[in-house]
Design a protein that fits this description.
There is one protein chain. This protein is of the alpha/beta class. The chain has a single domain, classed as Alpha-Beta Barrel (TIM Barrel). A 12-stranded mixed β-sheet has the order 7-8-9-6-5-4-3-2-1-10-11-12. A hairpin with an 8-residue loop joins strand 11 and strand 12. Helix 1 packs parallel to helix 2 and helix 1 packs across helix 9. The radius of gyration is 19 Å and the shape is globular. It starts with 10 loop residues before the first strand and ends with a helix. It binds iron/sulfur cluster (SF4).
Length: about 350
């Protein structure tokens, strides 16, 4: 099954909570998501059983990878129970799902072992700098780098790898952290990815002149660390891979690799095989969508599995989203008139 641009459905991102204990300025600015912000009541969240049922139906359309997101997914109580349920599912080929999770790492040190035991395969941790002052200002809740690093180490010891670390690069805020981050993770087995600052949601005050293109990130890294381009590992991979090279100029796997995710300057919509499910069961077909499809009503109504599966199929087949490709054709600062859904609601 493919959408209107011939893209298969392979990757499902499930937001399990709209809450977070950070207030990253590019995602959940404190001014908007203050202490009186009306987060979703628990009753409106999909239950673990509903999430597992819907995941099983997405698998019938070819989904092979499920990423749990949020908000901060580790804030969802007993998430290990959900992970156990999802880990028991099998793809159409009879294989285990590529079950992963994106976290800010704040409580990972406490949870890593239990997540692994429940069946989680690997984790991606967000960290925007090594300098404590810079990181604390970006997460805007004064959270220290050391505790996130402790979470990454606990995940490594628990076998939740290969671990990926995502750094959002915002020009004028943290580009001076690019080399320190690379120096810290090079040769550790952790794959560091640099993400171009994006106009996600409608509240982060995004400006194009605060985007540091990935080409400049690579140029900066190469002033100190030799890099060679690597081939993608899977269709639809968002990151461009670069391997650390040895003195002969060849990739040295012991030194590892980095990635750049260039949604703004090198859009990858052409191979985008991702769907997103919000915390309350709305299906979104693009990170920059403004509307979603209510699957919860089907789950909580009389609809059979077949009926829900065919609804998902129809929705995907009607998909033609490619916002990042179109962004550059829009007037500066315009989003084409649509108000993007918040990233903290549908997950990154
Ligand atoms: S902008 Fe939308 S369609 Fe393009 S890669 Fe991102 S999520 Fe996919």
């Amino acid at each position: 099954m493919a959408d209107r641009l011939g893209r298969p459905l392979r990757d499902l991102r499930i937001s399990v909570t709209d809450r977070c204990n950070f207030r990253c300025t590019y995602c959940m600015p404190k001014e908007i998501f203050g202490k009186d912000h009306p987060f979703l009541p628990h009753a409106s969240l999909l239950t673990f059983e509903e999430i597992t049922r819907i995941a099983r139906l997405f698998i019938t359309h070819g989904v092979q990878k499920i990423r749990l997101t949020g908000g901060e997914p580790l804030l969802r109580k007993n998430i290990e129970v959900l992970i156990e349920q999802l880990a028991a599912l099998r793809t159409l080929e009879g294989k285990p799902l590529d079950l992963t999770l994106t976290t800010n790492g704040s409580i990972l040190a406490r949870k890593a072992k239990a997540l692994k035991a429940a069946g989680l395969r690997r984790v991606t941790v967000s960290l925007d700098g090594m300098d404590d002052a810079v990181f604390r200002s970006m997460n805007d809740v004064d959270f220290p780098v050391a505790d996130v690093l402790a979470g990454i180490e606990a995940a490594r010891l628990a076998g939740l790898g290969p671990i990926k670390v995502n750094m959002v690069v915002k020009r004028g805020t943290n580009e001076q952290e690019i080399l320190p981050m690379a120096r810290h993770f090079r040769g550790t087995g952790v794959v560091l990815r640099f993400i171009e600052y994006m106009d996600v949601g409608a509240t982060n005050g995004w400006r194009m002149d605060e985007v540091l293109p990935s080409s400049e990130v690579i140029k900066l890294l190469r002033t100190e660390l030799p890099l060679v381009p690597l081939d993608p590992t899977a269709p639809g991979e968002t990151a461009e891979r670069w391997g650390y090279a040895d003195a002969s100029g060849r990739h040295d796997p012991r030194l590892g690799e980095i990635g750049v995710i260039s949604s703004v300057t090198r859009a990858f919509c052409g191979s985008c095989n991702r769907a997103r499910l919000s915390t309350e069961g709305r299906l979104f077909l693009c990170l920059f969508a403004s509307q979603g499809y209510d699957l919860r009503a089907l789950l909580r109504g009389e609809a059979t599995d077949e009926a829900i599966a065919s609804a998902i199929g129809r929705i995907w087949q009607g998909r033609s989203d490619r916002y990042s490709e179109l962004r550059s054709t829009m007037p500066a600062g315009s989003t084409g008139g649509a108000r993007h859904i918040e990233m903290s609601y549908i997950g990154g």
